[in-house]
C-alpha cells in the first residue's frame, strides 16, 4: 500500500507538500499540484481519515444524534433514505458518521454536547429528536457546527434543513377540494414535532382559504405510526358526521387509516379519500396505491451534508435555514366526492 513518502519520492517533492495537496491547501503551485495528483492517481493512493485528521487537526467524524425506536431513525422508511444520502456526500469528503446511542436515563441538559466533545467530532447531525428537549436546545449554542433535519435548531453555529411542510399540506387539501371534498379531516402530530405542527398549519390555512368548514373533532392526533393512523380513523368513525376525505401528515398514518376504512367495508378513494405525506417506498405498494405529498429525500440529505461541510470547513459561514420543495404524487386513494350513508 502506497504512502505519502512513496508519492513524495516519485513526484520529487517533500512529504509535507504531498500532505498539503491532499488537504487542498492553496499555497501549492498548479504545476506541482498537478504532478502530485498524477502520482496519487497512478499509485491509487487512498488517504485514511486518521491520516487526514492528523494533518488537519480534525477527527474527520460527524456525530449523529438520531431518535431511536421501531419506526424512527435508521428504521424509518423515509429517514433511512435521508441518512443514506447524507452519509454518501460526507463520505466523499472523507468523513465518517458516528451514530450516538442516546441515554434517556441521563437528565443532564448538556448530555449531548458532552458526548460530542468526548468523541471530538467535527460536526453534528440532529434528526428526529424532540424540539423541547433542553439537551437538544443546548446543541444550538455549544459552538460545534450543527445541522438538523426536520427540527428548527438555530444558533451561532447551528442551522437546519426542512421540507416545505406548510406548502405541501396546502397542496394536499387543494387536491382534495378539486375532487369536490369539503368535509376534510386531519390526522397528525400537532405539537411535538416541527413537521407535524407545520403540516397542521398548512391544513388550517387551506381550510380557511377555500372557506371550508373547520370542525375541531376532525383534527385527530397521531404520532406518525400506522397504528396511530388506524386509531385516529376509528375515532373519526365514531363521530355523527364523518368526513369524506382525510389528510394524514405521514404515509404510515395514512396506511393505518386506510386499513380502518377497509375494515368498515368501505373503499378507499371511492367512499373516503386519503392522502398522505412523505412518499415512502410502501406508498406505491399498498392497495390502493397511496396519493401523497413527496418529500425529496435525497435533496434533504444532500443539502444537510453540504451545509454542515461548509460550516465545518469555513468558520465564517453563516448557519443555513433551507427549505426543500415538495411535490404531489397522484395515485389511487383520492376520488371524486360522493356523499352517501355509511354502514355502521
UniProtKB/TrEMBL annotation:
GO terms for molecular function: DNA-binding transcription factor activity; transcription cis-regulatory region binding. InterPro entries: HTH_LacI, LacI/GalR-like_sensor, Lambda_DNA-bd_dom_sf, Peripla_BP_I. Keywords: DNA-binding, Transcription, Transcription regulation. The keyword DNA-binding applies. It comes from the Bacteria. Pfam families: LacI, Peripla_BP_3. Residues 2-56 form the HTH lacI-type domain. This is LacI family transcriptional regulator.
